Structure formats: C-alpha cells, structure tokens
Amino acid sequence: MSNGKTKWSAQWIAVELLIMALIGLIFGFLGPFGTYAMPVALRLAYWVGFIIVGYAIFRPVSISAGWLRESIGISVWAAELMATAVATLPLTFLIGFAISGMRFDPDFLGDRFVLLYLQCGAIGFGIFLFMRLLFGPDEAVEQADHDLIQSDNRKIVPASEPIKLVRTQLHDRLPQSFPGMIIALGVEDHYVRVHAAERTEMLLLRLSDAIKEMEPQEGMQVHRSWWVARDAIVTSKREGRNLRLSLSGGLEVPVSRAYVTKLKQTGWI
C-alpha cells in the first residue's frame, strides 16, 4: 500500500498515515462494495479503520518484497504483486472476522472470502499505484538504477596486492600447459569452461564444485553460470539495464542483478 520511499522514517510514516486516513474517508463517503447502506458515521469509521489496519499490514510486507526484489532481481511490479497477494490474506481474515460479528464464521471461508480477498487486494494494489503516482518511484529502486548508470565503463578499483598466479586445486584437473591465471569459470551444459586470458578448457564438473576448488584464488560468483577472479576484472559497463564485467583478455561476463549489491559492497565495482 506504500511505495516505501524513505523506509521507516517516522516523519514519512506520519505522512503516509494521513494519506491513508484521507483515502479511508473518501471510501467512507462513497460506500463501495455494499457498505453504503451502513450509517454514515459507522461507514466512515469502518473504512478509515480498515485502510489504516491494511497499511500496518501492507507496509512491512511491501518493504520485505523490496528486499526480495533486490536479492533476486525481479521487477518492482512483480515484487509488489507478491506483497499484495501475501498481505491481503491476513487483512481479509480480519475484515471477515469483524463483519461476522467479531466471531469466527466457518461459512465465511468460501465464495464470500474469495470475493473479499479480491476486493482487498484490488484496493491495496490500487493504493500502491496511487502512492507511486503521487510520490514517484521507490528511492531504493532509483538508487539502484543510478548506481548501475554510474558504473558504466568505470575503471574497477585495483586490488591492493599485485596480480599473483595462484595455484589452486582446480589446476590439477587441467593440462600442464594451461596458463597459471584462471580468470573465469562459465557453465556450458553439464560442463564448466575454465577461462584463462588466452586459452580455455572444458571440464565435466559442476560450477559449485569448481568454485570450491578455486580457493585460495580470490573471486566471486556473479551470475548463476559465471564465477570471476578478482584480479582479472578490468572494467564494468552497462548494456541497457544489464551490467557486464570486462576481464583481462577481452572476455565479458554478465552480472545478475542479484549480485550487483554484493559487488558494490565489496568494492569490486
């Protein structure tokens, strides 16, 4: 029900609560979904009360959905639809309990429950759209997109140590003529392609096992199909909304949105 513009700022929550109360008053005067037959005072209290209760449920769920979006890289719309579907359930139970005379009515858990669930969900998502229209996109989303733009063709901060050829357990699986510096691992079907700056080799191995055998080489998985060595990163660049890492030797590796935050936190980009 909120666009989460400033997370848990007390001042911003107060503003949102005021807006929720005003929305509740509007619904109270209009009396939708069969509530117009209620006395005016009761109708206003009903709508203001449940809009604010709905806000108290939707707000933390919406923020959690934002964290999920940042973690797995889904769109803000998909995250908010998920939040609406989850938060609507307890709200529907509460409203059903109230309109059943503050008691549990088993007969309510049927078509009436489904209809009320859809009505609550539509109102919740509608308020989210209204708040987004009123205040613009979530600051967190804007900041993430800004960070991606700022990373366009930016030089990576070099490692404090000079590049060293690190001998790893994975080298034991490779031909002796393979160059010492492994710069990346990429998945191809059931194989892992081991990349050096000037050569590649295929190994019948899972990526997770190959990554374990790369210790003590400093590196990170940046995509479900890619691992890169820290010392091999030259630049990062953006193609549309996608981030890519350019490695020594000219290899370019895609970065999943789920890994962008981790790369920034570690100072790699």
Largest sheet: 5 strands, antiparallel
- Listing every helix as H and every strand as E from the N terminus to the C terminus, the arrangement reads HHHHHEEEEHEEEEEH
What Rg is obtained from the alpha carbons, in whole angstroms? Answer: 26 Å
Give the overall shape, derived from the CA principal axes. elongated
Task: Draw up the topology in text.
Layout: H1 10-30, H2 40-72, H3 76-99, H4 111-135, H5 139-150, E1 154-155, E2 184-188, E3 191-195, E4 200-204, H6 207-212, E5 219-223, E6 226-229, E7 233-239, E8 242-247, E9 252-255, H7 257-265
Antiparallel strand pairs: 1-7, 2-3, 2-6, 3-4, 5-6, 7-8, 8-9
Helix pairs in contact: 1-2, 2-3, 2-7, 3-4
Question: What do you see in this structure?
Answer:
The protein has helices spanning 10-30, 40-72, 76-99, 111-135, 139-150, 207-212, 257-265, and strands spanning 154-155, 184-188, 191-195, 200-204, 219-223, 226-229, 233-239, 242-247, 252-255. The strands form two sheets. Strands 4-3-2-6-5 form a five-stranded antiparallel β-sheet. The radius of gyration is 26 Å and the shape is elongated. With 269 residues, it is an alpha+beta fold. Helix content is 48%, strand content 16%. It starts with 9 loop residues before the first helix and ends with a helix.
Which descriptors would you attach to this protein?
disordered N terminus, elongated, LytTR_DNA-bd_dom, LytTR family transcriptional regulator, alpha+beta, transmembrane helix
